[in-house]
Amino acid sequence: MIVSANAPFLAELAQIIGARFSPSKGKTASQLYVSNRWAYRNTFAPEEHPLDPPESSWIKVHEARPRPALGPKPFTFYGYRLAPYPTFLLNGHLVREAR
Predict the structure, then answer these.
(1) I need a labelling partner for 43 at 20 to 30 A (CA). Which of 60, 92, 97, 99 fits?
(2) 3-state secondary structure of 31
């Protein structure tokens, strides 16, 4: 079940997966039921993508130091230094050394 206030998105997604969709009237959110068998309706074309980009490589972590932040919502930030390059991709997100 996908619930969203974006009914045009749900309508478009329903067309792609071959589902029926009727937006809710008088409610802020609509629901789209997705069958467990939607992939067998020939509406999904699997694609192959390499898991590691050609420029990727593994590196050794020399040290990670926790830096706790206190307050009403405490969290932990891990400081790091990057050498010889100041940026890298981590799960598709650009990571930079703090300045």
Answers:
(1) 92
(2) strand
Which of these, 47, 78, 37, lies nearest to 61 by C-alpha position?
78
| Model confidence band, residue 94 (pLDDT cutoffs 50, 70, 90) | confident
Distance CA 2, CA 15 (A): 14
DSSP string for residues in 32-94: E---TTGGGGT--------SS-TT---------EEEEE-SSS-EEEEE----S-SEEEETTEE
Asked whether the beta carbons of 65 and 79 are under 8 A apart, the reply is yes
In contact, 67 and 77? CB cutoff 8 Å:
yes
Q: Contacts by 32-40 with C-beta closer than 8 Å and gap 24+?
A: 32/1, 32/2, 32/3, 32/4, 33/1, 34/1, 34/2
